[in-house]
Write a structure and sequence with these properties.
The complex is a heterodimer. Helices cover 20% and strands 26% of the residues of chain A. Chain A is built from 3 helices and 10 strands; from the N terminus they run αααββββββββββ. Chain A is elongated, with a radius of gyration of 31 Å. Chain B has a single domain, classed as 2-Layer Sandwich (Alpha-Beta Plaits). In chain B, the strands form 3 sheets. Chain B has a 5-stranded mixed beta sheet with strand order 6-1-8-7-9. Chain B has a two-stranded antiparallel ribbon with strand order 2-3. By secondary structure, chain B is of the alpha/beta class. Chain B has 7 helices and 9 strands, in the order βαββααββααβαβββα. In chain B, β2 and β3 form a beta hairpin. Classes of the chains: A alpha+beta, B alpha/beta. Chains A and B meet through α2 of A and α6, β7 and β8 of B.
C-alpha cells in the first residue's frame, strides 16, 4: 500500500486554508474579499454585481440630472473678455501664429488670409486632437495624423475622419490690432 | 483542465548531478519569456559539488500569496500556485523575500514576478514538466507514487517542511531515505552543521583500503 501525500486541512471544495487553520467563516473580511484560490477570486456574487450596477446607474443618472439643472438654472457663463492677439502688421499674408484665448486654453491658431482678413480656430483637430496645419494657398487646414481636411474660411470638415467643425474664435480688427472677442463652439 | 491527481512531482537532490539541463530546458520555454524558473543551488560550493534543483513546491498555504499586497498570486484547485497575474503584480518583491524556498523571481525590467508553475500548460494535459522530461538522472521526476516506490526502493517522498516555527505542507515531494525516522524535513536544523563532503568520502576510501590491505 503506497501512502498518499499528506496535505494540510482543506475544506470540501479544495480551498486554501489560512495559516491559522480556522475555517473561512471565522476569517477577517479582507481574507474573504481577497481569496488565494483562483475560483473564488474569479467568482462575482449576484449581490455584488447588482450593487455595482445599481450604484453605477444611479451615479450616471445623478450626473445627467446635475448637468440639466445647471444648464436650466445655473448662472450663464460670463461673456468672454476681449484679448489682443497680434498686430495686423505682425503677420504676413498667409502667415499664422498660435495663441491661447481665454488664458490657459488649448492652443488657438490665428491665420492671415488676406490684407485685412483674419481667421482663428482651435488648433486641435476635432478627430483626435492633433494640431492642424494651415495651407493658405489651398484655402484649407490639414491634420497630418489621419489626413483630415478643414475649410479655412469656415472651419468645417471637408475630408477624412473629422466630423465636427473646428471651434472658431471670433475676431475683431481695431486700430491695427487683432482682438479675440469670443469662442464659437463647433456644431 | 487540472493537473491529474495521480501524477506528482518528486525532487531527489541526492540524484542531482548539477548538469543544468533543467535550467536550460526551463529557459527555452516561451511561456515565461526565456527566463529560467529553476535555480540550481550549490549546497556548499567551496567544499562540495552537491547541487539541489529548486522548483516551486506549491505549498498548501502559499506564503508568497499570503504576503502579496496586490492579490496577484493565486492557487488553482489542483494545488498549483500560479505565477503572478500580470495586470495585478506591482513588483514589490514581498513574495521573493517571504518564500522560504526562494522560488519567486523578480523580473525587474518587466516589473513582474514570475515563478515556477509546474509547467501548467503541460502538466494540466498530463505531460511532464520540461525539467522533469530532460533530467538525465531523474532528480526531478514526474509520475505516480507507485512508479516512484518501484524505481526508488531506498527512498520515500516527504512533503512536510519545517522552517523554524513555520510548518509547510507542499504538493511537490522531496525524496528522503526510506528508513528515515521522521516524515518532516527540518530545513534549518542543519544550517550550522559542517557540510558532508569529500572529507567523509576520503575516510570511506581509507576504510576500504584498510580492508584490502588486511
Amino acid at each position: 500500500m503506497i501512502p498518499r501525500a499528506v496535505h494540510g486541512p482543506r475544506d470540501m471544495e479544495g480551498q486554501t486554508v489560512p495559516p491559522d487553520g480556522r475555517p473561512l467563516a471565522d476569517q477577517p473580511k479582507w481574507r474573504r474579499d481577497f481569496p488565494i484560490d483562483w475560483a473564488q477570486d474569479e467568482y462575482v456574487s449576484r449581490r455584488d454585481l447588482v450593487k455595482f450596477i445599481v450604484l453605477t446607474s444611479v451615479a450616471l443618472a445623478a450626473g445627467q440630472v446635475a448637468l440639466v439643472m445647471r444648464s436650466l438654472f445655473g448662472e450663464p457663463d460670463p461673456p468672454p473678455s476681449v484679448q489682443a492677439v497680434a498686430g495686423v502688421d505682425e503677420l504676413p499674408i498667409g502667415g499664422a501664429k498660435t495663441f491661447s484665448y481665454p488664458e490657459g486654453s488649448t492652443p488657438r491658431l490665428l491665420v492671415r488670409t488676406g490684407p485685412a482678413a483674419f481667421v482663428a480656430y482651435d488648433q486641435q483637430c476635432t478627430h483626435l486632437l492633433c494640431p492642424v496645419v494651415p495651407l493658405v494657398d489651398q484655402g484649407r487646414l490639414h491634420c497630418p495624423c489621419h489626413n483630415g481636411w478643414f475649410d479655412l474660411a469656415t472651419g468645417r470638415p471637408l475630408e477624412g475622419p473629422p466630423r465636427r467643425a473646428l471651434p472658431r474664435i471670433l475676431l475683431e480688427v481695431r486700430d491695427g490690432t487683432v482682438y479675440a472677442t469670443g469662442v464659437e463652439d463647433s456644431a | 483542465m487540472p493537473v491529474p491527481d495521480t501524477l506528482e512531482f518528486f525532487i531527489d537532490p541526492g540524484r542531482c548531478i548539477g548538469c543544468q539541463a533543467c535550467v536550460q530546458a526551463c529557459t527555452e520555454c516561451s511561456t515565461h519569456k526565456g527566463q529560467s524558473m529553476i535555480q540550481l543551488d550549490y549546497v556548499d560550493r567551496s567544499r562540495s559539488t552537491q547541487t539541489v534543483p529548486v522548483v516551486c513546491l506549491h505549498c498548501d498555504t502559499p506564503t508568497c500569496a499570503e504576503v502579496c499586497p496586490a492579490d496577484a498570486i493565486k492557487r488553482t484547485p489542483d494545488g498549483v500556485v500560479q505565477s503572478a497575474r500580470k495586470p495585478r503584480c506591482i513588483a514589490c518583491n514581498n513574495c521573493v523575500l517571504a518564500c522560504p524556498f526562494g522560488v519567486p523571481k523578480m523580473q525587474t525590467e518587466m516589473h513582474l514576478m514570475m515563478k515556477c508553475d509546474m509547467c501548467y500548460d503541460r502538466t494540466s494535459v498530463g505531460l511532464k514538466p520540461w525539467c522533469a522530461s530532460v533530467c538525465p538522472s531523474q532528480a526531478l521526476a514526474f509520475g505516480t507514487r507507485e512508479e516512484m516506490a518501484r524505481l526508488r526502493p531506498r527512498a520515500k517522498p516527504v512533503n512536510t517542511f519545517q522552517f523554524g516555527q513555520q510548518m509547510i505542507r507542499t504538493k511537490v515531494s522531496m525524496m528522503v531515505p526510506r528508513d528515515a525516522a521522521t516524515d518532516i524535513v527540518d530545513v534549518t536544523a542543519a544550517m550550522y552543521e559542517p557540510t558532508v563532503s569529500h572529507t567523509m568520502l576520503d575516510e570511506v576510501f581509507d576504510q576500504d583500503r584498510d580492508e584490502v590491505d588486511a
